Amino acid sequence: MQVPWEGRRGFILTRLQVLPSPNGRVRIYLTIQHFFQFCEIIKKSNMDPDSSVYSSTTGAPNTPTSSDTATNAPEKDRRATIPLYRETVPWPGGTYIIRDPKSGRNITMVDGSIRLEPHLGDQGGYHWRCITRNNWFGFRSPIDGFHLGRDDKGNIVANQRHHLGWESFVIRGHPDGGQQLLTKHDEELRVACVAKDGHQLTDTKDSEFTWEFVKV
Q1: Quick check: pTM over 0.85?
Q2: CB-based contacts of 127, cutoff 8 Å, min separation 6
Q3: pLDDT-derived band of residue 64, with 50, 70 and 90 as boundaries?
Q4: Residue 59 CA to chain centroid, in angstroms?
Q5: What share of the chain is helix, strand, coil (3-state, %, to 5)?
Q6: Does residue 159 contact residue 168 with C-beta atoms inside 8 Å?
Q7: Which of 102, 155, 157, 203 has its CA 20 to 30 Å from the CA of residue 72?
Q8: Which H or E run includes 37?
Q9: What SS3 string covers 59-96?
């Protein structure tokens, strides 16, 4: 395995610095002279040093072993799953992306319908401004003023510019993380979740489904 040039130079410098010499001045002069000579030689070659060269006793960089790679891999994978924005608790006045933590997709307005979609970039439709009325939460699109709500069939929609009973929500934190988005049905609360098709949203009586609210 070829060792990077910076690693070779560090190895040469380390070895030359420990060369014994009875005369300190001569030792320094020879060290610098040998250093540049060896630099030119190694730079023109394609040296593949053995394992003894880059040992922990030389002070030079070590080539990662397979065990090191295996140990660090889970940590690297874990960092790759960290979301771009930090989850928070929704509060009136804030604007949020409402995201399914399992799929990473967002509640999005697409052609007049509410769907669960990947991040659509400049197309937008996935920002929701948190508001309140009589302490009931509401979520309004800052683009067209429509509010998230439900219809009489339990589908999650956004087709009203007012914030009344069907556009009212309760936010409840889940002990395992995330927030439940609860719709109002007379004296009953239902959990907003993803429908069976994986794209539409509905509400149901019994569900552990949670959302992430990401402030933007």
Answers
A1: no
A2: 95, 96, 97, 141, 142, 143, 216
A3: very low
A4: 35
A5: 25, 30, 45
A6: no
A7: 102
A8: helix 24-44
A9: CCCCCCCHHHHHHHHHHHHHHHCCCCCCEECCCCCCEE
